[in-house]
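Example record

One chain of 373 residues, shown exactly as stored in the release files.
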Amino acid sequence: MVSTRKRIALVCFSFSWGGLELSMLRLAEAISERSAAVLFVVPPSSPLHYHASARNLPVVPLAPRWKYGDLLAAKNLACTLKEHAVDVVIMMRSQDIHLAALGTKYFPGIKLVFYQQMNSRYNKRDLFHTWIYSRLSLWMTLTEGMKNDVLEFTRVPREKVNVIALGTDLQRFSPDQCNQYDARKNFGLPQEVTMIGVLARLDPGKGQEVLLRAVPEVVKFHPDAFFVIAGDETAGEPGYKKKLEGLCRSLSIESYVKFLPFTSNVSQLLAALDIFVLPSLCETFGIVVIEAMAMRKPVIATNAGGVPEIITDGKTGLLVEPGDAEELTRAIHRLLNEEALRTSLAHSAYEKAVARFDFSQCVDHLVELVSAV
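Predicted structure tokens for this chain:
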């Protein structure tokens, strides 16, 4: 385990609670375990404030009044960082960079690090973004594809951009920790079925509709197949779940599908499945794919975003084109018909997860980079 003596602040002005915020919390806990002093700067009464406090991480409440140009918030941030003798600030949201950049005008000795979680292909080579990004000492991305886009669409120097895949906790996501019978019982799922599932936010971009359109053809030849759609709707955007439920009724597949809410016990829900599917139309990275691999589940995912850097088609999973329900149907048929292939994919996926996506090793690499800025 790599340690650092630098005092690190993680800054995130998000009021949401999703993958990015969970990643920020996981990272804070992991860095604090490596003998580093960690400070959280988050909005008061936000989910991050609540969860960080519950984990006994030191939290300073701060929220900008508006999205850009809040000079008072920038000064307050700088004063907070100076008061706590912070050496390095890590951010995961691009919209938070400008405030930290303004803050360095008051406290120029601090180093700024951006750990990019969402890909962007917008041209940001203008003077405003060029100045903001010039304040960064280090830019980290999850995938090589994201790094290439940073180099193409910004003026950030190549030597500042590094790739660190955010892995998963292989102790928590272990096939030895859960058994399928108990997992299905705990979630109220049927036992004598072949279970296929997706765990993702209920959102058109996540492709649950594509998976549901594959169900009629699958159950025609495999009547023992059963589908689980797990997740909550995007905050502030209700209605998609009703649309998916209506689609089930129109396709007459209600008896083959069960919707489950978001669960923090992802490993147990994955244990309930026989096949994991991620049908996203676009996915920056797909940490849940790695979690499924660590649980020795055969995976079908879309050939989009960062997923191809995780899944090697035909070796550690099957890749299908996003939005193509017919190709997804064929991939599901293939796994249901070929037990040896399911076993082979699951085994190879598990080995790759252990070798490349161990969260502890990923954090060690990150700490090394941050310690060197």
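Notes: The chain has a mean pLDDT of 94.
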